[in-house]
Amino acid sequence: MSTEPDLNQALFERAQKVIPGGVNSPVRAFRAVGGTPRFITRGDGAYIFDANGRRYIDYIGSWGPMILGHGHPAVLEAVQKAAVEGFSFGAPTEREVELAEAILALVPSMEQVRLVSSGTEATMSAIRLARGATGRSKFIKFEGCYHGHTDALLVKAGSGLATFGNPTSAGVPPEVAQHTIVLEYNNLTQLEEAFALHGKALACVMIEPIAGNMNFVRASVPFIKRLRELCTEYGALFVFDEVMTGFRVALGGAQAHYARLIPGFKPDMSVFGKVIGGGMPLAAFGASRAIMSHLAPLGSVYQAGTLSGNPVATACGLATLREIAKPGFFEALSTKTRTLTDGLKTVARENGVPFSTDSEGGMFGFFLMDQLPQNYTTVMTTDKERFNRFFHGMLDRGVYLAPALYEAGFVSAAHSSADLDATLDAARQALR
Ligand code: PMP
């Protein structure tokens, strides 16, 4: 046993005195998996380093944004240059226009975007805009999808389709939750029933098209197709929350993926975050010009932000988008991700461990069960203790996976084949 002091533990104890739970976002506290959270001192390419100087292969990538790995030279240069020019002006800049143009060029379903500072802000604003544009209050979301911590989105299913949702957090009044209808993901029957009951009162339906907040669960093609038809028929806006999938599962996001499978498919509104900021606080929501013109200062839906379109964040986002738009980027990233997931599956099979896995672009999930789940209830039947042992087994061997079984994983362009091999070696030992 090492006799050196554990600096992560020391920092965690210090942190808990001044920050609730010692963290600024709950999942970082390792509550689900137990043990001491690692305090990260720096990142370099595919690696992060903790307070003890220990190196980890990073499959969280700040929960998605770090698609190029840490400290990519072109991004670093853009950020350093922007920082010297000024941190924030609270006035328009050319870089915001450039970033908006770059995003729109890659996402043809949108004609305009508004930049904000977090995914939560973006989904909250999208819901307000959908309500303002349609003059309706209710909306549908799906169990297991996370859209940030806006009151009306922190809601779980009520006792039936005719009743409305229940808050999942203290501090959310039931009146706020009463307009939120929560349905089971991939359940066509519930969807039909909900539209029959509430269709004409719905402002929108918001979905994670490939859900990364219940590990990795795809919306089935028939489900997306039927949702599109129902939204059109009832005049509800179809909102793709691509905070996680945007510029991550494909250059044009999950909507590009579904457009390949459903000819002509597009959502009415989209929300982005994570990759578009390249690790800086930046997110966006966008739609047709007609919908976006309801926003202030043009229209009556109010939305604003002191740091919105921040010059350093937009520089970081733009430099990141430039790199991932290079030819072959997503093919290479997808191949890496698949090498990892195929390898994990083989290792699990060698050890007689039930295992299923799926990925798209640089986003992946795995389940310690034989078949890929289709909804949240099935995801939560995962053997939690076994997952936690696997997580710690990997962490002890220098591989940093998401510290909860309901989170997706992320591969970056900086992960080398040696990193992938080292990960599979660690998995072989951990699963044994
Ligand atoms: N939507 C989705 C799909 C997300 O995954 C997240 C964050 N994980 C959010 C919204 C909220 O984003 P943020 O944490 O930046 O507020």
UniProtKB/TrEMBL annotation:
Q: What is its EC number?
A: 5.4.3.8
Q: Which InterPro entries match?
A: 4pyrrol_synth_GluAld_NH2Trfase (IPR004639), Aminotrans_3 (IPR005814), PyrdxlP-dep_Trfase (IPR015424), PyrdxlP-dep_Trfase_major (IPR015421), PyrdxlP-dep_Trfase_small (IPR015422)
EC top class, in one word? isomerase
- Give one GO molecular function term: glutamate-1-semialdehyde 2,1-aminomutase activity
**Which pathway does it take part in?**
Porphyrin-containing compound metabolism; protoporphyrin-IX biosynthesis; 5-aminolevulinate from L-glutamyl-tRNA(Glu): step 2/2
Task: Give me the reactions it catalyses.
Answer: (S)-4-amino-5-oxopentanoate = 5-aminolevulinate
Q: Where in the cell is it found?
A: Cytoplasm
Q: Tell me which UniProt keywords the record has, alphabetically.
A: Cytoplasm, Isomerase, Porphyrin biosynthesis, Pyridoxal phosphate
Question: One Pfam family this chain carries?
Answer: Aminotran_3
Q: Which family does it belong to?
A: Belongs to the class-III pyridoxal-phosphate-dependent aminotransferase family. HemL subfamily.
* Stored HAMAP family: HemL_aminotrans_3
The name of this protein is Glutamate-1-semialdehyde 2,1-aminomutase
The UniProt gene name for this protein comes to: hemL
